[in-house]
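Internal tracking record. Fields below are filled automatically when a chain is submitted to the structure queue. Please do not edit lines marked as system-generated. If the sequence contains nonstandard residues, flag them in the REMARKS field before resubmitting.
Queue: standard
Priority: normal
Entity type: single polypeptide chain
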Amino acid sequence: MKTKTTSSLLLFCLCLISSICFGQDTTLAKPTKVKTTHKLGFALNLGTTPGIDIAYKLSPKVAVRLGFSYFKYNVNSNTNTSDEEVNLAGDVDMAMAGLSFEYHPFKKSSFKLFGGASYIDKGKVSVVVTPTGTYTFGSTTFTPDEIGNVKFSVDYGKKIAPFAGIGFGRTIPKSRIGFGFEVGTYYTQSPVVTLTGEKRLSSMSEQQAKVQENMKDWQYWPIVNLRLAVRLD
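SYSTEM-GENERATED OUTPUT FOLLOWS
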């Protein structure tokens, strides 16, 4: 009877030890789930301030962006003004680099606020207006060379300009590629206006001060961009 009791107790102890050992092994064998945090992104802007952004995520809701914008467009076309055909020749030249922050207030939405400042290296629009046909005044007919031309330019100069706006889409998308758009504005100083006329149109130079006064409130440069974003890590 004593031998049977001892055997039963020994068997119980063995089962208990086996249960503890196997239980510990099973717990240790479970894989640890590691959450991956993506922190680098790249975005291409197409719109009023075309260029690129490189972004680094500071927190789940905030990313810092370093951007560069460049845009140059040449104009050379004929149009009618006051029943006279004229040639418009000129260009739009813009280049700027900036630092900004992107803030996503809602965890499950790509809606965002953004803001920062850019150094404007170029921000100029210039146009030369030249008649293409002859002009008759009384009994005298003038050729385009005799009439002359008018040169007009708007220059924002080299300066730092703050900007802000709203949009949808992340510069560091959750998927490898993402799309979005942004709308906002730059706030700058009033541009410098130049207006000069040559030959028969030399009197246009007298209007420069008036045009400058009329454009004193042109302190906003619109931001309307479609964006293609790529996660880099």
